[in-house]
Amino acid sequence: MASISQGKPRRLSHKSRGFRVLQRGWVYLFVVLAAIISLFPLYWVTVTSLLTSHSALDFNPHFWPDWSWSNYSDAWSKAPWLHYFTNSLIVALSTVVLATMTSLLAGYAFGTMKFPGRNLLFLLILALIMIPGEATLIPSYLVISTLGWIDSYQAQIIPFAVSISGIFLLRQFFLSLPTSLWEAAQLDGCTRSGFLWRVAAPLARPALSVIALQVFIGSWNAFLWPYLVTRSDQFRTVEVGLQAFVGGEGGTDPTGLAAAAAFTTLPVLIVFLIAQRQFIEGISAGSTKG
């Protein structure tokens, strides 16, 4: 009897272990499929950028490139890309600085200070996320036009100087800070602003990295708004520069467009690969307390 009673738990443990292995296998399979689906557009753009014009216009899809590197040199010579890259860097970095600063100040206020209507104001700010960007295009354009900012850097920077998701992330982070830190700082004679810059901001560096990365990628990849508020190549960015390969007398050049899209995407990929660790740490740090 003793041997029988001891055998049952072993069989149950084997079943439980097998179920866990099967469950983990399904998770891995889902992750692999999600990765393939996510990476396939990048793979397809790369392959198309290396095809010959004849292969690109062929009805049958080509999953292996022809290694036609001349597409990149032709695409680079078709537009003032160096000027576009400079404009994109100016717009993206300026937007990052403003958005991280406003997110830090607003998140600090909502996370550490108590004032009348704090929760209501925070909910109203979060509600702005539900308004689609297309609904604000015309009002925003009219404001920019009234200010005389059409065809300028500030028209592409100021409308994105506030990040609602950044405010939310930093507010969550500051809520997770123990009150003993502020109490100890008060004993040392530290003011609210001193606590922000000497204690809170350095601790919030991972969350700030997430906001900076998100804002940089969003600003770099923006097309519709820069296209609407710019008139000349002097202020246009790389995404607007891709228009040179669409339409025109010869029609759309698929290989040139793919090559241009490939080297305009490269800076974003490099930045993300460098900052991916900080991105994961910042997301984890900002989700510790609701």
Describe the structure.
It is found in: Cell membrane. The protein is mostly helical and 290 residues long. It has two domains: 48 residues; 207 residues, MetI-like (MetI-like fold, Orthogonal Bundle), CATH 1.10.3720.10. Helices cover 72% and strands 0% of the residues. It has 14 helices and no strands. Helix 4 runs antiparallel to helix 11 and helix 11 runs antiparallel to helix 14. The N and C termini lie far apart (53 Å). The N terminus is likely disordered.
From the structure above, extract its key features:
disordered N terminus; 2 domains; 290 residues; MetI-like fold
Brief overview:
The chain has helices spanning 2-49, 53-56, 70-77, 81-112, 118-127, 137-146, 154-157, 164-176, 179-187, 192-203, 205-221, 224-229, 238-241, 254-285. It is mainly alpha-helical and 290 residues long.
Q: Secondary-structure blueprint of this entry?
A:
Layout: H1 2-49, H2 53-56, H3 70-77, H4 81-112, H5 118-127, H6 137-146, H7 154-157, H8 164-176, H9 179-187, H10 192-203, H11 205-221, H12 224-229, H13 238-241, H14 254-285
Helix pairs in contact: 1-14, 3-14, 4-8, 4-11, 8-11, 11-14
Taken as a percent bin, the fraction of beta residues is under 5%
Query: How many distinct folded domains?
Result: 2
Largest sheet: none
| Rg, Å, rounded | 26 Å
Query: Could you give the count of β-strands?
Result: 0
Name of the CATH superfamily of the largest domain: MetI-like
Order of helices and strands: HHHHHHHHHHHHHH
Which descriptor suits the 3D outline? globular
The CATH architecture name of the largest domain reads: Orthogonal Bundle
Q: How far is the first residue's CA from the last residue's CA? A: 53 Å
Low-confidence regions: 1-9
Using the coordinates above, name the CATH class of the largest domain.
Answer: Mainly Alpha
User: What helical percentage do the residues reach?
Assistant: over 70%
Class derived from helix and strand content: mainly alpha
Q: Provide the CATH topology of the largest domain.
A: MetI-like fold
Q: Quote the average pLDDT.
A: 86
